[in-house]
Amino acid sequence: MRKQIRGLLLCAVVLAGCGGKAAKPVEPVTPEATPTAAVEATPSPTREATPEVTPEVPLRPTSSLTSEATPTVAPTAAPTATPTVAPTVAPTVAPTATPTAAPTVAPTATPTVAPTAAPTAAPTATPVVHETAPGTNIVHKVSEAAPWIVIDAGHQSKADSEREPVGPGAAETKAKVSSGTQGKWTGVSEYALNLEISLRLRDALLLEGYNVIMIRETNEVNISNAERATIANEAQADVFIRIHADGSDNPAAQGMMTICPTPKNVYCKEIYEESRRLSDCVLRQMVAKTGAKSRKVWETDTMSGINWCQVPVTIVEMGFMSNKEEDYLLQDAQYQEKIVQGILEGIQEYLGR
Ligand SMILES: [Zn+2]
């Protein structure tokens, strides 16, 4: 369903109980393969393995039995027989035997070893990958010294209408998380667009040497807005970027906006100044890169995903999925890169890097 600005509020807002601050424990548990690792790793091992295996496989079945037996006999027979025979036999047998032996070992070993090792070593910028639940809270640690950027791809494929306090200790509650708006022209779901941009932003940040934590790297998750904020809090994020897109009943509505708390927020006024500055930097750079209309930095205390924050946060509203031009632009790879570069430069400016 399409939503208006009011709808956006809903999307960004809703949170569940999770408050306290902690070390950085959320991430640890499963250091195995994650969506990210999988995605990045899969292509390379496959690419490398396929060419080697494919050509050799056909040889194996055809010659294996024959050749394996033959070579053993051949050498024995060759010397015994006449020198004239040797050359004739040798060449014929040798080639057949060699390929057989090699392939038998190679294919078996390569695929088994490669995939396992690749995810850990191959990905240049993602040495460490942890997660607390499949596809969630994924840690990409580049270095001890680098700032930590937490990216929240807004929404998820299925809304969770269960309720949670709008802020720490709040009596008022809101639905935990919604599925967001939808492209009026493209039909694309906001949660899918948000993830696409977030993954691009992750890659851009890793390339610049930042540590990145992804709240989610798949659409099939269930993480409330409060839980998302808590992940950023526990990571002691230097920057918490929440990626969203707008929707409105007014098809003419367009442009970009960033959102932060007000100086009077009863839950998190301590983060107001930094969040405002972050929101200013990101909006300015995004608009500069894309040429989109700049709406404003919206200061509001209606977002539970912000109220639960204890770290500098901004919600990025990339454009209107209800506006024909922007709906299509938001699906354009080059435009997406401009948005990402804008956010990246906004973060750089905010951090003074
Ligand atoms: Zn949204």
| Number of strand elements | 9
Strand content: 15-25%
Specify the helix fraction band: 40-55%
* Count of spatially separate domains: 2
| Cα gyration radius (Å) | 28 Å
The helix-strand sequence is HHHHEEEEHEHEEHEHEHH
So how many helices?
10
Uncertain regions: pLDDT < 50 for 5+ in a row?
1-131
Bound molecule kinds, no repeats: zinc ion
Give the overall silhouette: globular
Q: According to CATH, what is the class of the largest domain?
A: Alpha Beta
Distance between the termini: 40 Å
For the biggest β-sheet, the strand order reads: 1-5-2-6-9-7-8
Give the helix/strand class: alpha/beta
The CATH architecture of the largest domain can be named as: 3-Layer(aba) Sandwich
What's the CATH H-level homologous superfamily of the largest domain? Zn-dependent exopeptidases
User: Can you summarize the main beta sheet?
Assistant: 7 strands, mixed
Average pLDDT figure = 74
Reported by name, the CATH topology of the largest domain is: Aminopeptidase
